[in-house]
Specification:
By secondary structure, the protein is of the alpha+beta class. It contains 10 helices and 15 strands. It has helices spanning about 5-20, 25-40, 60-70, 80-85, 85-95, 100-120, 135-145, 190-195, 250-260, 350-355; strands spanning about 155-160, 160-170, 175-180, 185-190, 200-205, 210-220, 230-240, 240-245, 270-275, 275-285, 290-295, 305, 315-325, 325-335, 340-345. It has 4 domains: about 5-75, no CATH class; about 85-120; about 135-240, no CATH class; about 250-355, no CATH class.
């Protein structure tokens, strides 16, 4: 059994004997043999003296060391000399032990690959609009007209009961916007280049009553992918007035407001909203004064009027204060030939009230 110093000496000699950097002389080879014999003597059972193998000659040890250093074969590690297992065998054994982990990692990468493929190549075109039986009849009539490429007519959206279709013609050279309902159809077409830059616009009037119609306007642009993108607008108009209203209910409210306040029905319009409450303007029929009216859904609504001659100036303002539950809201409407806008101030207090 070797002591600590001898073990250090043994490792140094082995490194020189079996490493790439050099060889041992005769004395060093003999010392290496002596130390290796002393290390194994304490751990192995003592064999009968007659059966003990003859130790190798120093010349043989030196030759073996030289063969390791100068030979073509790669040197074998200390672990391989001790256990008889090469690094390749160790890696193969480790792979066998962890095959389940390898399979799991492969499966995860496969799932990630499928997800990325779906994100990159999935069809992201707009979902087809669901049509009622009546709307399907309108579409069938559009297709039967023969004005558009077969299979190109596609419903996109609807506005106030009017359906808006996308279609192509002249073998897709032109793109079309088609508005239709049970009473009328309004197509508009242009080239793909024009639709990409400036869009294409179509308008259709839908009867609401004997004196009112819903004007539906749609504007379509083409995206970089060639898909239609549509903007729609709708408002109520009347042959008796140049005013436009957002809904049929709003148009009816204007008629009621004219009856209650004496404002000229042809001049009444909405200039803004306080939450969902409309703020109106109009000209008094008897005095020709320009008026600002709050809500208008009840008899004798809050109203402030001024001389209509003020319209000749660029920047004039109508002011109306409305008190509700102890809080005053001020409505200021600037009008004239300049910019027109409504300002709503909540919790407003007059200068007199502030001084008190």
């Amino acid at each position: 059994m070797l002591d600590a110093d001898e073990s250090v000496e043994l490792r140094a000699l082995q490194a020189r004997a079996y490493g790439r950097a050099g060889a041992l002389n005769e004395a060093e080879a003999a010392r290496l043999r002596e130390l290796e014999t002393g290390r194994t003597r304490g751990t192995e059972p003592t064999a009968p003296r007659s059966a003990a193998p003859r130790p190798p000659e120093p010349e043989n040890i030196e030759a073996a060391a030289s063969a390791v250093v100068e030979g073509d074969a790669a040197p074998v590690s200390a672990q391989a000399r001790t256990t008889g297992v090469t690094p390749g065998d160790s890696a193969l054994a480790a792979l066998r032990r962890h095959w389940r982990l390898a399979v799991a990692i492969t499966a995860v990468f496969a799932v990630i690959g499928l997800a990325l493929g779906w994100l990159i190549f999935a069809d992201r075109g707009p979902a087809p609009m669901q049509l009622t039986a009546q709307q399907q009849e309108w579409q069938s009539a559009i297709v039967a007209s023969g004005d558009f490429d077969p299979g190109s007519v596609r419903a996109i959206t609807q506005e106030e009961g009017v359906v808006i279709w996308f279609a192509t013609k002249n073998e897709s050279a032109n793109v079309c916007l088609v508005l239709a309902h049970e009473h009328a159809t309004a197509p508009a077409c242009t080239t793909r280049e024009q639709a990409t830059v400036q869009g294409v616009t179509a308008t259709l009037a839908k009867p609401v009553s004997a004196s009112q119609t819903y004007d539906i306007q749609a504007q379509m642009f083409l995206t970089q992918e060639g898909e239609p993108a549509v903007i729609t607008r709708s408002y109520i108009t009347s042959s008796q007035s140049s005013s436009m209203f957002a809904s049929e209910a709003e148009a009816e409210a204007a008629t009621t407001l004219a009856e209650q306040t004496g404002l000229d029905r042809r001049t009444i319009l909405v200039v803004g909203y306080d939450d969902e409450v409309p703020i109106w303007t109009g000209i008094d029929t008897s005095t020709q004064r320009y008026c600002l009216v709050y809500d208008g859904s009840m008899p004798d609504p809050p109203m402030a009027c001024d001389d209509s001659l003020m319209l000749a100036d660029a920047d004039r303002t109508l002011v109306l204060d409305v008190a509700d539950d102890g809080e005053t809201t001020r409505y200021e409407y600037q009008f004239g030939y300049g910019q027109q806008y409504l300002t709503v101030t909540k919790g407003w207090e007059s200068e007199d009230a502030a001084r008190e």
